[in-house]
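Researcher: Sequence of DUF6340 family protein follows. Predict its structure.
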Amino acid sequence: MKRPLLLCCFTAMLALGGLASCTTTVHMQALAPASVSMPVQMQRIATANRVLPESPRDKFFDVLEGIFTGEGPLVDRAGAESCTMSVGEALMRNSPRFRVTPASLQLLGRTREFFLPPMAPDYVREVCRRSQVDGLVVLEAFDSDMQLTQSVEERVIKEKDKPDRKVPVTVVHMSMRVVTGFRTYGPQGLVVDQARQEDRLNFVSEGDTYQQALRGLPAPEECIRRVSTRIGDQYARRIAPSYVNLSREVYTRAKRDELLRQANVRVQAEDWEQAATVWRQAAQSTDPKVAGRACYNLAVYHEMNGSLSSAVDFARKAAYDYQLANARDYVRQLQARQQAAQTVEQQMGSSATDGLGGGQ
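Model: Prediction complete. C-alpha cells:
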C-alpha cells in the first residue's frame, strides 16, 4: 500500500484577519531533502559520542575549564551527551530514512584538540559489526562558551492614585554558544560527511541586584543542553530527509456563492473528502472567481494527499484559466515541491519502496 509523501495534519485555523477573511490556513508536513545524500546501502545506523576525556590530565583540564568559565565542571561532557542523543532522537522522530539504534555508543576518547582525526576504517567496521549497523553518526568535537553582560536600566512603576515613578533594575544578558563537529561513517568505515556547526541562544533576566538577576537565568548546563539539542536536530536534517511544516491557504467564500461556504463547513469539521466533492461542483461555476478559488482549493487538497501532479494541474487551471493571482505563486511552490520530492525519493534509497514518492 502506497503512503503519500505528505503527512497531513487535518486541522484548520482561521487565517490572520479572523472571521472576515476569505481564507483559512491548513497545515501539513512534507519530507524535505537532506543537504547531503548518504550511501543507499546505509540503512541501519548508530549514534556515538567520541568527546570523552581520555586521560586523567584531560579530565583535570575539563574541570578546570568549567571552573574558570563559570559553566560548572563537566558541563561540556553533559552537553555532548545531549547533542549525541538529540541526533538519534531527531532521526527517529523526523525522518523515515534510517533505522536508528536507540543506545548511543561511547567510543575512543579525545585529546585537547578540537576536531579529532577520523577513526580508522577497520575500527569503524568492527564497531558497526558489533552494533549490527551499517554506519555511525559520531560527535567528534564539542565546545561551549558563555558570555555574561550586565546593564542598569529604568523601569516605570505605575500605582493607582500615585504618580508614576522610575526605579533602577539590573539586567543580565547571557549568551550561550556551542560549536560541534560531526562525522558520519559509511559501510566501508570511511567518512561520508563531516560538518562543523555553531549555534547560540540568548537569555535575559533582571532584578534589583546583579545576584538576583543571575538567579533568574537558567543554569548554564540547561542552556548548553538546549543549544546542543538544536544542533543535534540540525545535523540530523543535514544527513536525512526530514519532515518540515507547511501551511497553505484555502478559500472559504466568494460573493453570492453558496458552495464555497458549504465546503468551508466541511473543512471546519475536518471532512476533507466531502469538502473536495463540493469544490469540484464549485469548479464548474460560470463565475470565474468561484471556479478559480475552487480549483485553487482542489490543488491544496491534492497536495495534502501527496498527489503533486494533480495539485499542479489544478493550480495552473486557477492561475491561467481564471487569472487567480495567488495561484501563480502556488504553481511555483508546487513545482519546487515536485523537484524536492524526486530528490527525497533518491535519498531514501531502499527505504522508499513503500511509495514515499507518490504524487509525482
